[in-house]
Amino acid sequence: MYIHLGSDTVVRDSDIIGVFDIENTSVSRITKDYLAASGKRKSAVSVSYEMPKSFIIATVAGRERVFISNVSSATIMKRCR
């Protein structure tokens, strides 16, 4: 099954590694460093230009990708069920 992450972005549910609330998790230095490193590796993809609410880690074509989405983590988790 495919999960809609926002705008025109969909990912297979079996490819999703984790769904995280950006407001709660970005307080941690480790998370900030991880997101910054993902940006430098160009593996981070912004799904929308709106205010981000969550980030999703998934494997796409064998590569780890970080999707920054304006859809809340709770909504994405409901779509995964």
Describe what this molecule looks like in 3D.
This protein is α+β, with helices and mostly antiparallel strands and 81 residues long. It has one domain (2-80). 30% of the residues lie in helices and 40% in strands. The protein contains 3 helices and 6 strands; from the N terminus they run βββααβββα. The protein has helices spanning 22-25, 29-40, 73-80; strands at 2-6, 9-12, 16-21, 44-46, 54-60, 63-69. The strands form 2 sheets. It has a 4-stranded mixed β-sheet with strand order 3-5-6-4. Strands 1-2 form a two-stranded antiparallel sheet. The longest helix has 12 residues, at 29-40. The N and C termini lie close together (10 Å).
Topology summary:
Blueprint: E1 2-6, E2 9-12, E3 16-21, H1 22-25, H2 29-40, E4 44-46, E5 54-60, E6 63-69, H3 73-80
Parallel strand pairs: 4-6
Antiparallel strand pairs: 1-2, 3-5, 5-6
**Rg computed from alpha carbons, rounded to a whole number of angstroms:** 12 Å
Fraction of residues in helix: 25-40%
Q: What is the 3D shape?
A: globular
- Total number of strands: 6
Largest sheet: 4 strands, mixed
- Major sheet strand order: 3-5-6-4
Structural class: alpha+beta
Mean pLDDT: 94
Briefly say what this structure is.
With 81 residues, the chain is of the alpha+beta class.
Short descriptors:
alpha+beta; 3 helices; two-stranded antiparallel ribbon
